[in-house]
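[Q] Does anyone have a clean structure-token version of this?
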Amino acid sequence: MSERKQREEADRLATDILKNGSNTQRRNLFVSAAAFGASAIVAGGATSASAQTAPAAAPPPPRRPVLKDDSRVLNIGATVRSGNYWDFKTFMTPVEEFYVRNHYATPTVEQRPILARENWKLRIHGTSVERPVELSYNDLLGMRSRTIIATMECHGNGRTLFWEQDGLSGQQVAGGNWVMGAVGQAEWQYVPMSEIFARVGIKPGARTVMFWSGVDGNDMGRPMPYTDVVSLQHDMGVCFAMNGNPLIPDHGAPVRMVVPGWGGTASIKWLTEIRVSDRRIWSRLNTRGECYIGPSYARPEFAADDEFVGVTADDIKGPMVTWMPPKSFITVPLVLERSPSLPANYPLQRGQVPRLSPGQQELTGYAWAPQHGVRSVEVRIDGDAWQQAAIRPPNLGKYTWVRFTAPWNAPAGQHVIETRTTDNSGTTQPATVPLNSLGMANWAIPKFRVEVA
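[A] Here you go.
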């Protein structure tokens, strides 16, 4: 399918969903054969004499840390790829354009046989579980499932603004240079946690739900407070399909969690275990990683009888990132001057300013506010008054982003374009946010420099 046809189909599907709701029979949109590859077909039969004397086959190529074709994403490190957000046009993000945030190389079936669908098991147990179970892949497919259209965003998306707009160094704020592209929107098919809880039964006094990969390093478990899981139990769950197709390895195949609205690490990939405990649990992903650590953030309380998985009480330094805040961008690459590193295939050189043609322009962009939904989007040029942007339908609710447009009669010269989102609770993107050393969830108003010539 050509890019133009794909975009037309994106708009058609989004409008159809707005009118009729989602339907898993209409789902193979945006997902091309290139995203999934094709199975090799090997003919059987007797081995010939010539084959027996043939020279040894060449060794296989080195294992790739990211398995999908990454020509349509931005290479910011060995196991991470950012979306080329300046090229975004569709309401739904094709799998080929969806960012990848892995802490380790994507595990394969050859390395981890449990990742084969016929081998996969999900163990649900813990001190707060009445009836522990182990589910197979087919068991999961046989349970009641839902679909939800939702953005997913890495906690570190926008970290670049700490360097470029606040002038902080790589020693003050560490992490990958996502620019603005570690966000995408997909349709996720999942078994809700409400179904899981109903099957196993939860005892009174449950405090923590630990979602554990079991195949991705030895520290990839994300605890969530049980009360938060209950509040989201219909909207979050055990996910097995993305944009109407089975998950691919880089996005957690065969099964992952999806927690809409929360930072992406809550949506643990390659899920093999859910444990519900009557104690608080601390792990790397809610202590040394994915937390706000800085002078403006208080250290969370903890108790002597809390459970520590691969960490100690000394690792507790700041609160875990949960809901992602309101954000926005226009589809123009950000100028990178002060960042510690430049993504390998970024379209601009260090310090280079993107060019636009003079005259009437239509600025386009995306805005999202997953906790409450987008109320409005504004744009301003060169520090003048804020102007309302036009939100392009559909706006499907709090978990989804919106596309917006704003007209601009662009005069020659250098200009700064800013965008800001206000959500349905009245919260608006601020001019700056407090320093946190991991660069988490920077939702400051972004400033896009352009040259009109």
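[Q] Thanks! Anything notable?
[A] The longest strand covers residues 413-423.
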